């Protein structure tokens, strides 16, 4: 129904962003909300997927058509819902996901929250050989920063926000605690903390 929304990002939290367009605030769930930045004037284009079920209706948003396309393909796999697809996309390196599917690397795929051996095998069966149209653009710019000039946020606050976002994605507190010492040594934005954490969690 909605291909994209162009508006101002007025609110960001660990689960979703709010995009204001024509005086309407749209709640949009995204892989990494902190990749978007609150602004009073700057308009952003958020590509959307309108998810409708008998018991649920929600908007999911992405920074590119390629990211949206990969989300749709993941959603087509039996056993993967919107939350699971967002957690996979939030890894920061969709190229690794595509490579794992093409190489039938179940060991890598099961590292994502909610993905067991059965679901990993289903991903391979359903998507192997069908992601060629997604890979090129995804690899080049899917997770590029929206605002390279943004100053590094205060580390403690940014790290706390990143931890909350990881919990929303489905990672257990025990898993997060294991990587905290390495993260605490760095001074990053929330978005950068999330990317760094996900890279460590997927090793």
Question: What's the short story on this structure?
Answer:
By secondary structure, the chain is α+β, with helices and mostly antiparallel strands. It has nine helices and five strands; from the N terminus they run βββββααααααααα. Helix 1 (65-75) packs across helix 2 (82-89), helix 7 (155-169) runs antiparallel to helix 8 (173-184) and helix 7 crosses helix 9 (190-201).
Keywords:
four-way junction DNA binding, alpha+beta, DNA polymerase, domain 1, 203 residues, single chain, DNA repair, helicase, OB fold (Dihydrolipoamide Acetyltransferase, E2P), Helicase, Ruva Protein, domain 3, 3 domains, 5-stranded mixed β-barrel
3D architecture notes:
With about 200 residues, the chain is α+β, with helices and mostly antiparallel strands. It has three domains: about 5-60, Nucleic acid-binding proteins (OB fold (Dihydrolipoamide Acetyltransferase, E2P)), CATH 2.40.50.140; about 65-140, DNA polymerase, domain 1; about 155-200, Helicase, Ruva Protein, domain 3 (Orthogonal Bundle). Helix content is about 45%, strand content about 20%. It is built from nine helices and five strands, in the order βββββααααααααα. The chain has helices at about 65-75, 80-90, 95-100, 105-110, 115-125, 135-140, 155-170, 175-185, 190-200, and strands spanning about 5-10, 15-20, 25-30, 45-55, 55-60. The protein has a five-stranded mixed barrel. A hairpin with a 2-residue loop joins strand 2 and strand 3. Helix 1 packs across helix 2 (about 80-90), helix 7 packs antiparallel against helix 8 and helix 8 (about 175-185) crosses helix 9. The N and C termini lie far apart (about 40 Å). Its main location: cytoplasm. One of its GO terms (molecular function) is ATP binding. This is Holliday junction branch migration complex subunit RuvA. Keywords: ATP-binding, Cytoplasm, DNA damage, DNA recombination, DNA repair, DNA-binding, Helicase, Hydrolase, Nucleotide-binding. It is found in: Cytoplasm.
């Amino acid at each position: 129904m909605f291909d994209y929304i162009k508006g101002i990002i007025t609110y960001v939290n660990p689960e979703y962003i709010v995009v204001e367009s024509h005086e309407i605030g749209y709640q949009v769930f995204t892989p990494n909300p902190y990749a978007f930045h609150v602004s009073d004037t700057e308009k952003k284009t958020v590509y959307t997927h309108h998810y409708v079920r008998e018991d649920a209706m929600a908007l999911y948003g992405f920074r590119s058509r390629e990211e949206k396309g990969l989300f749709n393909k993941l959603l087509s796999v039996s056993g993967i819902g919107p939350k699971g697809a967002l957690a996979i996309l939030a890894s920061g390196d969709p190229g690794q996901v595509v490579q794992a599917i093409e190489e039938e690397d179940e060991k890598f795929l099961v590292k994502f929250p909610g993905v067991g051996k059965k679901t990993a095998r289903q991903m391979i069966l359903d998507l192997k050989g069908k992601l060629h149209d997604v890979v090129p653009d995804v690899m080049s710019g899917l997770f590029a920063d929206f605002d390279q000039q943004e100053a590094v946020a205060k580390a403690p606050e940014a790290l706390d926000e990143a931890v909350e976002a990881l919990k929303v994605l489905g990672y257990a507190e025990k898993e997060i605690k294991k990587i905290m010492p390495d993260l605490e040594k760095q001074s990053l934005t929330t978005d950068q903390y999330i990317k760094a954490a996900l890279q460590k969690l997927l090793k």
